Amino acid sequence: MGRFLASSVFVAAISLAQGNPDFSGKWSLDTEKSDDGDAVILGGIGSTDRMSPNDRRTAERLIELVRALRVLEIHQSPADFRLHDEADNVRIYYIDGKKHARETPWGEKLETVTKWEGSELYARTDGKDLGEIDEVYAMEGSQLLYTVKIRLEDSKQEVVVRTYYGRAE
Questions:
Q1: Count of CA atoms in the C-beta half-sphere (13 A) of 145
Q2: Main-chain dihedrals φ then ψ at residue 167, nearest 5 degrees
Q3: For a disulfide at 27, which of 72, 82, 111, 141, Cβ 3.0-4.6 Å?
């Protein structure tokens, strides 16, 4: 335990020395300040009844992912950022500004580029049938602000979901 704590403190010190916030820890959704992900996604891309089967499947999966983000656990190092959600999904982002292959929980192939832009961690993901997803992790006071911008392949509209998190006990 002592070795883990010492290495965590060392990693946090490196991140802070580089001017980057350390998002490591457990976070709980602040429902009062956050967007309603289901409503924003459905409002932005329209009724699932009028969608193509591919867009409907994508919308349902996006909603499923948003629902799993009520509690997050983040492990961050200078090289990568690992996000664990309530559905036991793990997202790994390599913070080097290069394209890295990823896979969704459903086996779809994605390419993600992750880099620091000032004090914000920015990730852009492109998927064959998915479209583009921009994710931004930033601190707003003592809260983690996670912003997702979604542009589906067959849709011209952009959907933006903002979620706020406080440190979990």
A1: 15
A2: -60, 130
A3: 72
Report if residue 111 sits inside a domain.
Answer: yes
Domain of 127: which CATH number? 2.40.128
The residue assigned the tokens 């982002």 is 93
| Residue showing tokens 């086996």 | 107
How far is the CA of 84 from the CAs of 13, 25, 44, 91, in angstroms? 22, 10, 26, 7
Q: What is the DSSP letter of 128?
A: T
Q: What percent of the chain has pLDDT over 70?
A: 70
Q: What's the confidence (pLDDT) of residue 169?
A: 75
Cα pseudo-dihedral 151, 42, 130, 73, rounded to 10:
90
Q: Are 132 and 157 in contact (CB under 8 A)?
A: no
DSSP letters spanning 23-54: --EEEEE-TTTS--HHHHHHHHH--GGGS-HH
Domain that holds residue 127: 29-70+93-167
Quote the DSSP letter at residue 95: B
Parallel/antiparallel/unpaired status of strands 80-84 and 99-103: unpaired
pLDDT-derived band at 154, boundaries 50, 70, 90? low
